[in-house]
Automatic annotation (TrEMBL):
Family of this protein: Belongs to the glutamine synthetase family.
Annotated InterPro entries: Gln-synt_C (IPR040577), Gln_synt_N (IPR008147), Gln_synth/guanido_kin_cat_dom (IPR014746), Gln_synth_cat_dom (IPR008146), Gln_synth_gly_rich_site (IPR027303), GS_Type-3 (IPR052725), GSIII_N (IPR022147)
Protein name: Glutamine synthetase III
Domain GS catalytic: 187-623
PROSITE patterns: GLNA_ATP, GS_BETA_GRASP, GS_CATALYTIC
GO biological process: glutamine biosynthetic process
SUPFAM superfamilies: Glutamine synthetase/guanido kinase
Length: 735
């Protein structure tokens, strides 16, 4: 019996009860009772550290600095005491290398003293810094140029936590990962720099309005979409196992057209899985808030309450890991790929982003007074200007082989970056544009400010999310970057967004100060620069349907970039403009940027290459054998009917079917061979960018759809019981 039928059998024999109970035994009723119980929170630190160590740790967190060496041993001891009180035996530095998943290398607290007696230790050095074998992580040539080794260093702004899933409990220390000469090799190091750049630039601008602002934090609330499939069926699909997406599979008769999944109740088995991974997330302090079905069958979403950006990024990376692990308990698999199934929606990860001051003001929330509304307007218009000026860099930050399947595929925002702000804010911007003129005086200024303030109530009523098609939408008190892919590390787009915002705000301050120096009153100067920025960036605003063809044409007329594929989109990372942007803001040096560009291209090549290989393998060893066996059956049937003396008309349908099948068999195998040739040619190309382009255009675009079409046709023609690969209707509708 093929794996497919075994999986289908198992599925119908499985008792739901065996899958429903959370296996980790947590039955506490209230979330608050277990929230963050596996996190070294400030309260826990208070309890396990001496006064001195506690103060030192808090000071480092506040200043965003490494912890004091002289305190490291004390802090490490406190953390170990806490961890051991929870039964932890091992620790690891937990980091986010550019491979896209999280990395851990476990070490035991256990060690031997010189006399051979066993002892448990965790010293300051082990807490602060480690040297994982850096050679197995991508460095884009940095290592060759600089220094072979890399090290991880604790980032105390993100608290230590305990992973307690399956066997053993591990203390995880969130770290950055850098080369010995300081080049960043991960997602976190540049993110922290971008957060700091934004803080500095935003505080300066806030101080025009409020002297009490001393700190600005970026905030992120992500929404994670994912698919869930049965483990047995998953295991019978080598393409899912190898690349997280199905390279073959005909649409099932029913898809998402009835929207019955979106509006239906959550399937029991998935519900049990959700509750289980949510519990694990709560213990880790991830504040999950919503869960629901998504549009496509077997597609779901979860989202937390927003948090400080760095922590939110860690929590998303952690969530993806936890989901994957907990799914195994329920004999389910989570698909985080952007496009696991053709013909139905893919998955995204909306990034809701804003900025908050130490005085408790959300800088993207319309204010309560005319003055705070002017501050809101300044930050709002600066965001639009940043996105306008650096749309290409923002696009590059979400470019990946899997996300290419979504962007512009009439289900996700297009590759054109535009901003949706809604009718009322548009009106306000138009007002500012018309009324701020050369003769604009103090009286005009206060009238305009009051008029803006008057329209805020209307605006608040308008903050419903009416345009689902926009890649970058204002949703009342935050911007929502929707083009991010479901498997992405949020740090990549967030590093760029915060950097371009920092750069724009710094320019804004310069421009305003220049006018003030010329003798302009502060608030009038601010209005003038806001007006100038509105005029300079309004072509990035779009209120219509982003999925429409007219928009692609209109965007072209406006001169907005529309780069559909990753190898070209990534070019924007290494333009002179980008190099200057990242160097000026102290995020990436030129070599670091070149290295990242190289790494992204290599990731692209590898992903497309793996898909090509699995396609060839499945076509040759799974699909063709099934098709040929059925072909033989037909041949014998026709032969038999002929021998029995029947007329040609009596086996006309069999003949027709046979011809059809034979045609697809031939096309399938000849295209697979040609694709393998094209891959060989691409592999021979030295230059990484050209190789990526060859993989995109000569391999993927030329062959993948074509090959798939013939395979999918055969799926419809061949006897169902001969077919090895679980079909879409099984993957998507059975659980
Ligand atoms: P909806 O958009 O469904 O009405 P919300 O506006 O509450 O729901 O939030 C959607 C997402 O935006 C949530 O993940 C939430 O945490 C996040 N979010 C809300 N406010 C902010 C903010 N100020 N900064 C960042 N993210 C936010
Ligand atoms: Mg959303």
């Amino acid at each position: 019996m093929s794996l497919r039928f075994q999986a289908l059998n198992n599925l119908s024999e499985q008792t739901l009860e065996s899958l429903l109970e959370p296996s980790n035994g947590t039955t506490k009723a209230k979330i608050t009772a277990l929230f963050a119980e596996n996190v070294f929170t400030h309260q826990v630190a208070r309890q396990f550290l001496s006064d001195e160590a506690y103060k030192s740790l808090m000071a480092s967190i506040k200043a965003g600095q490494k912890i004091d060496r002289s305190m490291a041993n004390q802090i490490a001891n406190g953390i170990r005491a806490w961890a051991e009180s929870k039964g932890v035996t091992h620790y690891t530095h937990w980091f986010q290398p550019l491979t896209g998943t999280t990395a851990e290398k476990h070490d035991s607290f256990f060690t031997l003293k010189s006399d051979g007696t066993a002892i448990e230790t965790f010293d300051g050095d082990a807490l602060i810094q480690q040297e994982p074998d850096a050679s197995s992580f991508p460095s884009g040539g940095l290592r060759a140029t600089f220094e072979a080794r890399g090290y991880t260093a604790w980032d105390p702004s993100s608290p230590a936590f305990i992973i307690d899933i399956g066997y053993g409990k591990t203390l995880c220390i969130p770290t950055i990962f850098v080369s010995y000469t300081g080049e960043s090799l991960d997602y976190k190091a540049p993110l922290l720099k971008a957060i700091e750049a934004l803080n500095n630039a935003a505080v300066d601008v806030c101080n025009y309005f409020d002297r009490n602002v001393t700190h600005v934090t970026a905030t992120l609330g992500w929404e994670q979409e994912y698919f869930v499939v049965d483990e047995g069926l998953f295991n019978s699909r080598p393409d899912l196992v190898m690349c997280g997406r199905t390279v073959f599979g005909h649409n099932s008769a029913k898809n998402q057209q009835l929207e019955d999944h979106y509006f239906g109740s959550i399937p029991e088995r998935v519900y049990a899985f959700m509750r289980d991974f949510e519990l694990e997330c709560y213990k880790l302090g991830i504040p999950l808030r919503t869960r629901h079905n998504e549009v496509a069958p077997a597609q779901f979403e979860c989202a937390p309450i927003f948090e400080e950006l760095n922590l939110a990024v860690d929590h998303n990376s952690l969530l993806m890991d936890i989901m994957t692990r907990v799914a195994a308990r329920h004999k389910l698999r989570v698909l985080l790929h952007e496009k696991p199934f053709a013909g139905i929606n893919g998955s995204g990860k909306h990034n809701n982003w804003s900025m908050a001051t130490n005085t408790g003001v959300n800088l993207l929330s319309p204010g309560k007074t005319p003055k705070t509304n002017l501050m809101f307007l300044a930050f709002f218009v600066n965001t639009i200007k940043a996105v306008h000026d650096y749309a290409d860099v923002l696009r590059a930050s979400i470019a990946s082989a899997p996300n290419d399947h979504r962007l512009g595929a009439n289900e996700a925002p297009p590759a054109i970056i535009s901003v949706f702000i809604g009718q009322y804010l548009n009106k306000i911007l138009q007002d500012v544009k018309q009324r701020v003129s050369d003769k604009f005086d103090e009286q005009d200024e206060s009238m305009l400010k009051i008029d803006i303030h008057r329209s805020i109530p209307e605006l608040l009523m308008d903050n419903t999310d009416r345009n689902r098609t926009s890649p970058f939408a204002f949703t009342g008190n935050k911007f929502e970057f929707r083009a991010v892919g479901s498997s992405a590390n949020c740090a990549s787009p967030m590093t760029v967004l915060n950097t371009i915002m920092a750069a724009t705000l710094r320019q804004f301050k310069k421009d305003v100060d220049a006018l003030i120096e010329k003798g302009e009153k502060k608030e009038i100067a601010i209005m003038h620069v806001i007006r100038e920025y509105i005029v300079a960036s309004e072509k990035v605003l779009f209120e219509g349907n982003n999925y429409s063809e007219e928009w692609a044409k209109e965007a072209e007329r406006r001169g907005l970039p529309n780069v559909k594929t990753t190898p070209y989109a990534l070019d924007a990372m290494v333009t002179d403009k980008a190099k200057k942007l990242f160097a000026d803001n102290n995020i990436y040096t030129h070599p670091e940027l070149e290295a990242r560009h190289e790494i992204e291209l290599e990731k692209y090549i590898k992903k497309v290459q793996i898909e090509g290989r699995i396609m060839a393998e499945l076509a040759t060893s799974h699909i063709l054998p099934c098709a040929i066996r059925y072909q033989n059956l037909l041949v014998n049937n026709i032969k038999g009917l002929k021998e029995a003396g029947l007329s040609e008309a009596s086996y006309a349908s069999q003949k027709q079917l046979l011809e059809n099948i034979s045609k697809h068999i031939n096309e399938l195998s000849s295209n697979v061979l040609a694709m393998i040739e094209a891959r060989k040619k691409a592999n021979a190309i030295e230059n990484t960018r050209e190789k990526a382009i060859a993989y995109c255009e000569q391999v993927k675009d030329t062959f993948y759809d074509k090959i798939r079409r013939h395979a999918d046709k055969l799926e419809l023609l061949v006897d169902d019981k001969e077919w090895y690969l679980p079909k879409y209707r099984e993957l998507l509708f059975l659980r």
